[in-house]
Design goal:
This protein is an all-alpha fold. It has helices at residues 3-12, 18-53, 56-64, 76-112, 127-149, 153-171, 177-190, 192-206, 217-220, 226-233.
């Protein structure tokens, strides 16, 4: 489906219903909680190298100039290193998150309609998706930067379309990066209050896992991602007899 068809479906769709999506998301999460846990662990493992890069400039500066660690102001090599590495780290972390979230949404769909597919957590790590992941990560970086420039208020507004990007990546692989972002804004603008409300409520419920000695949050955290599947399903929907058999 092209971007014109996607936007047409969004415009013609009924407004999203808070209660319906809330109940459906809870019911579906009971089926995919284990896959959500696995997705979360894999996401953390693949993000770890980029998180380690944050400390690389400090290590290099400490090796070349041990006295720098005793100074109150950071050395120039540290500042330059962070300036170069931070965008790379952000794009890497965002790209990994997008890939795993989109794969998880595909798993949600398979369980929702009882498709017999294997759980492919690495579906979007294929070579043909890497450029799109980098492009989308850069666009998200731009949106976050614009949101910060708008005194932080813009960040709240952009949170909705950013959250929807993984759904359009998962279920509209033929769309370009800019078309994915455009479609996300179209859906987000039409149902902004319902979407932000559900994301907030589901995020709070997901944090209840901390009651189980904090470890339980690993099993509940992905609950906040399940509504995104229904945002897409209840607005754009899927083609009849559409199959998501893995390549």
């Amino acid at each position: 489906m092209g971007v014109e068809g996607v936007i047409k479906r969004i415009n013609e769709s009924d407004p999203l219903d808070f209660g319906t999506i809330f109940n459906d998301a809870i019911a579906l999460f009971k089926k995919v909680w284990l896959q959500g846990f696995i997705t979360l662990i894999l996401t953390f493992v693949f993000m770890l190298p980029f998180l380690i890069l944050i400390y690389l400039p400090m290590l290099l500066a400490g090796v070349t100039d041990p006295e720098m660690l005793k100074q109150e102001e950071p050395d120039a090599i540290f500042i330059i290193g962070m300036f170069v590495l931070l965008p790379i780290i952000f794009v890497g972390i965002t790209g990994v998150g997008l890939a795993f979230n989109a794969s998880f949404l595909r798993i949600c769909k398979s369980n929702d309609i009882d498709e017999v597919n294997k759980d492919d957590y690495f579906y979007f790590f294929k070579k043909k998706y890497l450029i799109k992941l980098v492009e989308l990560s850069l666009m998200i970086l731009g949106l976050v930067f614009c949101g910060i420039l708008l005194c932080g208020i813009g960040t709240i507004y952009f949170a909705v379309p950013i959250a929807l990007i993984s759904a359009f990546l998962a279920f509209n692989e033929n769309l370009s990066s800019i078309e994915i972002v455009k479609s996300s804004f179209q859906l987000g603008n039409k149902n902004w209050l319902v979407i932000i409300g559900l994301l907030f409520v589901m995020g709070l419920i997901a944090q209840l896992g901390t009651c189980l000695c904090y470890f339980g949050v690993l099993f509940t955290a992905m609950l906040s991602k399940v509504p995104v599947y229904y945002f897409y399903k209840n607005s754009v929907g899927f083609k009849e007899k559409e199959s998501f058999l893995l390549d």
